[in-house]
Amino acid sequence: MKKKKINLRDLKPNSEAEHNHDDGHNHSGQPNNFKAYIPAIISFSMLFIGIVLDYFDITFFKNGVRIIWYAIAYLPVGFPVVKEGWESIKKGDVFTEFFLMSIATIGAFIIGEYPEGVAVMLFYAVGELFQNAAVNRAKGNIKALLDVRPKEALVYRNNDYESVNPESVEIGEKVQVRVGEKVPLDGILLSEKGSFNTAALTGESKPNTIAKGEKVFAGSINLDGVIEIETTKEFKDSSLARILDMVQNATARKSKTELFIRKFARIYTPIVVFLAIGVTLLPYFFVDDYVFRDWLYRALIFLVISCPCALVISIPLGYFGGLGAASKNGILFKGASFLDAMTKINTLVMDKTGTVTKGVFKIKEIKAIDWEESEFMKYLMAMEEQSTHPIAKAILEYKAEGKDYEASEVFEIAGKGLKGIVNGKSVLVGNKALMTANNINVLQETETIVESIVLVAINNKFAGYVIIADELKDDAKETITALHKVGIKNIMMLSGDKDSITQQVAKELNIEKAKGGLLPEDKLNEVETLMKNPVNKVAFIGDGINDAPVLAVSDVGIAMGGLGSDVAIETADVIIQTDQPSKVVKAIKISRSTRKIVWQNIILAFGVKVIVLILGAGGLATMWEAVFADVGVALLAILNAVRLQRMTWS
């Protein structure tokens, strides 16, 4: 999936105070800047004084003075809206909220309802300020990411470290990072070990300690000692840039609910305008005591209520809040549409290696026969030092007491194992075929072991074995339990690993359906078969290049972002930054909370509007009720959407 690259220098925190809605409305402002509030404060002060003067029936506050006073009160908040409405009309977009608010408030002035005309526009302006403040709050996570952008990199050039812009650093260069500094680019650790704060990238506050040769990500903060890394990616391709890109572009991919509401608002608004004209003129033919001013007032109320602000503001804000809450928890949705899609998932298919397991071989069991375990392992480790196989690496992590042994005359027997001399004794290390070829009798119990097993013979006698297995991730078991609790009953594991190992892992995790020994096309066929049933809404979790086809075809593709391949991450719809499968459960909960709040806002906005529209048409509602039905409901919906930023999901 081709992604648009971004220039990180163009992403400035100040620009976050501006946002555009696809409905053609452009709301901009910087609520944290006091200047943004000055027009509303002036209008409110003058409106309040005017109402007091009206109440006490002050003599000088009559006729022309009163009109001029309220006109001046109207201008600070009204002029920008009227101007925006006129600009929209010139572009051919007539039925905008600016047009509705302008006609309604100017109409209120025409019929002498000056305070109400000012009040409607004032509350609308205040609603805009609240909206901008809410959006800025929702964008706090993006700003936090922007704040962790490293400003410089200490690169080893010309026999010395020099400070340069991270964007000028090339792949393969050596970079030094001091304590408290941010890692400028993705790379591998050259120092023996390092401890990093990766909270801005993963949402995890716990320090992450890694060893020499392991990956280090841009934006991580070095916590312990001066370290050196070798860069593996350019700055624009780093994990930090990728996160920024995905979060920045996520809001462009609208949900179906959001798109429907926008289309609906464009149809619904002109209908209400024509209904308002009908409310003004049609009663002339049916009412005996028809008074044009009264029916025009009702029509103006109708117009104020019809403004779709509460919908077109609060619904995108709800989804934005969901995206922000997810990124705060180390989960990146590539668009609001995937928040919606995640709520419908009822079938979850997962890869094994690197998804529910750590993808790293570890010693699971050591069985030495007639040997002390430590002594037995010294013979085995001496032989495995001659091998580069991942299993050898796992064995060499064992800590044996005393001085290590050295192997000599070691040679490899293709497809079987190693043969050599250790401590004056002949040693065989390998599989069953190697033992059989050398007439070594092994224990019967080794036949039932499904994991990778290393058999050892010393001086032509079976000495024992070591079981090597891929460890389950710490949260793998609780993930399956939690998935069942949130209603995901149909869980399936597909793996390229041996079927016997896949079945054993599935049994440990309480997954009923599992298949191993699969090629990438086999995984794809399995998922496509599931998707042929329209009842199934399938999410697939994977991390490797071989998972990319399945990630692309599933309803929701979820990739492990830490250890996962770049291809899988680019193809997926949702990225788990921490590589923890339990985050999938949290992603489902966040999606459901977001959808719940969005629908609460839809029902609130429509419910109140319909009630006040009916009251307004019947002459039972004033402009003040209309203000509540529009701006008041919009504010309530915004506050409801902001709740997502405060929620926690266990």
Automatic annotation (TrEMBL):
Task: List every stretch annotated Disordered.
Answer: 1-30
- Look at the named UniProt entry and state the broad enzyme category this protein falls under: translocase
Pinpoint the P-type ATPase A domain residues: 149-248
| Residue intervals passing through the bilayer | 36-58, 64-82, 94-112, 118-135, 267-287, 299-320, 597-617, 623-642
Q: What is its EC number?
A: 7.2.2.12
Q: Which reaction does it catalyse?
A: Zn(2+)(in) + ATP + H2O = Zn(2+)(out) + ADP + phosphate + H(+)
Where does the protein principally reside? membrane
Q: Keyword Transmembrane helix on this protein?
A: yes
Q: Where in the cell is it found?
A: Cell membrane; Membrane
Alphabetically sorted, this entry's keywords are: ATP-binding, Cell membrane, Membrane, Metal-binding, Nucleotide-binding, Translocase, Transmembrane, Transmembrane helix
- Entry-linked Pfam families: E1-E2_ATPase (PF00122), Hydrolase (PF00702)
Regions of compositional bias (Basic and acidic residues) in chain numbering = 7-26
* Family under the similarity heading: Belongs to the cation transport ATPase (P-type) (TC 3.A.3) family. Type IB subfamily.
Task: Write the protein's name.
Answer: P-type Zn(2+) transporter
Upper taxonomic classification of the species?
Answer: Bacteria, Pseudomonadati, Bacteroidota, Flavobacteriia, Flavobacteriales
